[in-house]
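Duplicate of #3305? Posting structure anyway:
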């Protein structure tokens, strides 16, 4: 009998060939890394586990402390799941415009949620959580997903190696949106070390006020703790409307019920495919599961 431990359960998520996309007449293929199949339902499972395990190993996280952080939703759900499994309290700050589904999922795991001004976005949530931690640091374990190197290292050591193996070393392009930038930075660092010729681009929304939850506008990326603009080979801009369209296409043409950032990532990957050399292998990330966005109306179109 297999006994599973949520904290130590590893999963190699599948790589899906997205046959409705790419440029088949030129042999250009687009693949999506199925991160929505992680146990917490998103790519953030990897970073949250790595940061929590590191805190436990170093003795920084104990039963008498509360896990606290700012989140746009997915990392918070992963923290809440892990906190429940470990019997440790979790308190999460997030903008008030985070979807109701994601807030309810955090509360379902027993986490306390604090909503900050939607107009201040993640910056407002981040400032609020830092203020609380500064007021009583002895009470909290604060992973700080925006500056913690375990975030990007989880993808350097895991996600990237899986993609290289799953593509048989044929990877030519990688594209991903950036929230904390952990996925993009970790994967890109590994890919560039493996083959400097692999083209790595970040997907970015077209304006500061967009509807692609969990993804940063390009100018805001420079404020992130470990984001390095020098490592990127360029940015691909995607509108909210296009992200919604591609999210619908993924469910209706590929049978993949994923979130809005996944739709935006695939839109960026197809944009890359149009100009990529013949025979290119393009990989992007299907970040989270679609049920977290039902209230947005994205599938009503």
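Output from current build:
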């Amino acid at each position: 009998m297999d006994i599973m431990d949520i904290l130590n359960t590893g999963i190699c998520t599948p790589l899906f060939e997205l046959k409705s996309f790419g440029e088949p007449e030129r042999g250009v293929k687009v693949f999506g890394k199925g991160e929505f199949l992680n146990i917490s339902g998103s790519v953030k499972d990897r970073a949250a586990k790595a940061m929590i395990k590191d805190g436990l190993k170093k003795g920084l996280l104990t039963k008498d402390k509360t896990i606290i952080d700012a989140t746009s939703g997915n990392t918070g759900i992963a923290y809440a799941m892990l906190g429940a499994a470990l019997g440790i309290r979790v308190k999460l700050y997030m903008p008030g415009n985070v979807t109701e589904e994601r807030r309810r999922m955090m509360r379902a795991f027993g986490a306390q949620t604090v909503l900050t001004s939607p107009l201040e976005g993640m910056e407002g949530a981040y400032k609020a959580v830092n203020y609380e931690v500064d007021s009583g640091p002895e009470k909290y374990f604060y992973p700080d997903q925006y500056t913690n190197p375990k975030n990007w290292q989880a993808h350097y050591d895991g996600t990237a190696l899986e993609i290289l193996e799953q593509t048989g070393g044929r990877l030519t392009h990688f594209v991903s949106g950036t929230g904390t930038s952990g996925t993009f930075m970790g994967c890109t660092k590994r890919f560039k070390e493996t083959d400097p010729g692999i083209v790595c681009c970040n997907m970015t929304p077209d304006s500061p006020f967009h509807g692609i939850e969990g993804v940063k506008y390009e100018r805001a990326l420079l404020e992130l703790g470990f984001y390095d603009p020098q490592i990127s080979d360029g940015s691909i801009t995607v509108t909210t409307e296009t992200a919604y369209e591609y999210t619908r296409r993924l469910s209706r043409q590929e049978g993949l019920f994923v979130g809005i950032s996944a739709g935006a990532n695939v839109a960026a990957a197809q944009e890359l495919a149009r100009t990529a050399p013949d025979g290119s292998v393009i990989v992007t990330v299907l970040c989270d599961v679609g049920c977290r966005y039902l209230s947005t109306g994205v599938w009503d179109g």
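Confirmed duplicate; merging threads. Strands lie at 15-17, 29-33, 66-70, 89-95, 112-116, 140-141, 173-177, 199-205, 235-238, 281-285. The longest strand covers residues 89-95.
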